[in-house]
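tool_call: predict_structure(chain=1)
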Amino acid sequence: MIANINQQDSASTLLNDYLNLIKSKGFSGETDCSYATRLVTATDNSIYQNVPQAVIYPKNNKDIQTALHSAQQDPFLSLTFGPRGGGTGTNGQSLTPGIVIDLSRHMREIIEINVEENWVKVQAGVIKDQLNDYLRPFGFFFAPDLSTSNRATIGGMVNTDASGQGSLVYGKTSDHVLGLKTYLVDGTELNTRKISIDKAQLLAQQEGNTSAVYQQVIDSCHSNRSLILEKFPRLNRFLTGYDLENVFDDSLEHFDLSRIITGSEGSLGVVTEAKLNITPIAPYKTLINIKYDSFDSALRNSPFLVSAKATSVETVDSKVLNLAKEDIVWHSVSDLITSVPGIEMQGLNMVEFNGETENEMDDKISSLCRKLDQLIENKQAGVIGYQLINDKADILKIYAMRKKAVGLLGNTKGKQKPLAFAEDTAVPPENLADFIVEFRALLDSHDLNYGMFGHVDAGVLHVRPALDMSDPLQEKLLRKISDQVVALTAKYRGLMWGEHGKGYRSEYGPEFFGETLFTELRKIKAVFDKNNRLNPGKICTPIESTDELVSVDSQKRSWFDKTIDIKVRDSFENAMNCNGNGLCFNYDESSPMCPSYKVTKDRRHSPKGRASLIREWLRLQEKADVNILDVEKQLINKENDITWWERFLNTRAKNKGEYDFSHEVKESMDECLACKACTTACPIKVDVPTFRSRFLNLYHSKYNRPFKDYLVGSIEVTAPYLSKCAGIINPIVNTKPVAYMIKKIFGYVDTPTLSVPSVVNSINHKYRFDEDTLSSLTEKEKENSVFIVQDPFTSFYEAELVTSFIDLVVALGKNPILLPFKPNGKAQHVKGFLKEFKGAAKNTSQFLNSLTKHNIPMIGLDASLVMVYRDEYKTVLGEQRGDFEVSLAHEWLNKQDWGIISLSETKEDKEFTLLSHCTETTALSNASKVWQDIFSKLGLSLTTPTTGCCGMAGTYGHEVQNQENSRALYEMSWKGQVEKSKDAILLSTGFSCRSQVKRYEGKKPKHPIEYIAQNIV
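tool_result:
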């Protein structure tokens, strides 16, 4: 029996009083002190964990001012705050034990653009890719390019002074900040921009809360100017947080306080708006992928590439490339990074050129290519080949692979995972190769594996050593390596943090700033935040404060994870391995990755959030001496030991408000659409539907299920019988009184209509499965046959698709054999009926395995069902699953001879648009291209726009409580594409997707099979 987990950690009276106070003063955003929300916000993309007291989500500047100003009065002076953006930091910058101010949920407005003066003003929660999507039609982009650009916020970029690809040309975020709106700890509004030194001194003399700030920064930076210039290395990635050098320009005639705030990691104030310089998009772009026989060759060749006047030079090693080859992302770039015959590629430099004219580009590219040809011919510099890419879409594919490399490293097999803790060192580019040789020797001396990638043009290489943080000895090794890397970086006159900020590495600040300048940092911190209430422990503490800095030895996520039994951790590795990369926060609405997060903007409803919650739930069960694996085994293999009466009492207690952390986990799981996009789109392959079904199975062993779960779980049992009476049932179900009753009693709306006639009654008897007839077939006849595996959606609600496929199979000269319907079990798996699912999987596997002796291909029509055979069956049955294989229709059709098919009309003047099922899109990345190839063989042109989730996802879109989210998801991604295709013939591969379009548009798209079959001559 699972334990009742009273982990509410209810907010203190002080905190509750504070939250009530700001609401009474007009705070219009949300406040949340639930354990689930605090837990999800306790981690970022680092190895650390720090559970905050609460999270507040301001909607505007007034909310932030209200929140800060209200905390300036007794008894709230002990409260601390930490601003948070996308939570993509690798060093715990946004983690705080106090109150998180999350600007990412609401403050996403692009306020103003001025194309004449090349600037844009945005709120802090605007996402980098969101901003560039907005700027693109104007011909501009915001230059600093991060690997996390589809979820990193501008506020986060400002606070870490982020940079990335192309920084040699475009610089860091601070090079593009024209002005900031910041709120100090007391709620005072501070607007900063570049001004004359005279005006800055005038502001320092005026009365007000900000005068001391101006005075101290002027004194610290002017008085120590010589020391600052001497101390800080002359690098593109100059020392950030706080940037003492660039407050003044070279002439000392201008002063910009924004330079101190940029890179301050929220320790000086809460940045809410930024005015940014924007860069014109160069009309010409070329990428050259240069291949090397070793990674060392790639590094040593980089200065030569930089001298070729490249915009950027990015590099990845063979470990990153090999991980990419195992991921879905490789399908999009495999033809752009081809192997070199007879030579193994161990390194890759991606060299980008941008230009205003074609001649300018030709000169630079031709010159470099000639030199590369000479190097290859003479077998010099380790260059073994190169490829030119001019298509901008293809260039974006390459960079998408490079960006995903950050997450892919986390998917390394084994307990040791590459970790970010000393991986953004910056040294002079000409020293990089020698530096890396020593860095590698350092790691090799500890027998560690590691991956490398980065920006060799700027001397920044991301090196991630693989450690098992559950091993106490390896945790200590993290400290040792950190210290050694600091010493090595200093030896090469570099910086410990060239890109990703300080965070929990702040303890090394004194070593890089020196005692005198670090004291000046503390003075600056004191005038901004004398009581150390803003992101305490980061960068520095106020002068005369006895507070300590955070440390690389601070509380880590692994401290909690390793208290879970190792067998449980291994069993739930699809949740335990989540490293916080946060790709599931992807801003792109056309990406299928995690629709529930996209529509709610609640991070509890993301794969990362759900993985965090399930890990904590497992830890707390362990703490309560519950052996989850034993309980789960008992539930799957025999009846629940808890009586119906005990479940009734538990459920009644729940309904009366009795707390159990399990309810918070359940609430998060309920929002999951079970679309499985996370299982392939996530670089770590966090598989929410699998651990969600396991959790639901366990949860409902203690608490009653809603009746609607039983209705869904039994659909494959009842549908065959209902279909026999479809002519009677359909009219009844569609009446208003019955529809109302179904809505009120079962919680479902828009009940789908059963097919009339049914599949069995609509196909020729000779195509039906018959064991005797099958046994009498010759080997030649079997080679020419196809098994059609039924699923409940198409067989009972869309029989016309099954008959269309049979017609198409016949037209292709094959013999279709419709197998008897066998429950697939997906609905049971989605709802957590794992005992019943195992039974269904076992029975169906036995039947399908019994047919493999005939060597006849098995074809299914719906991706979500077919993928269950491939994934969930293997998980629940193991070797008992057998070796049967069910292909999707397009996989089989692509191998057929389409020359024998003629259509009644080619529709050359018609356009065809295919909107794909999200499960199919993520699990089978080339599915759309296959359909394009098939249509091309028929003389038809098919477009396949990228879409996210349609919002139906099985029964999700039919459930009453999901109606608002289901429609929002449809309108977010699908509606626009449907409207664009009004002059085209609209097709869709997903049953759920076709049902959703019909529900909102009144017209159902056809499956491509159905269209082809109906137009065969």
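agent: The mean pLDDT is 91. Proceeding to next step.
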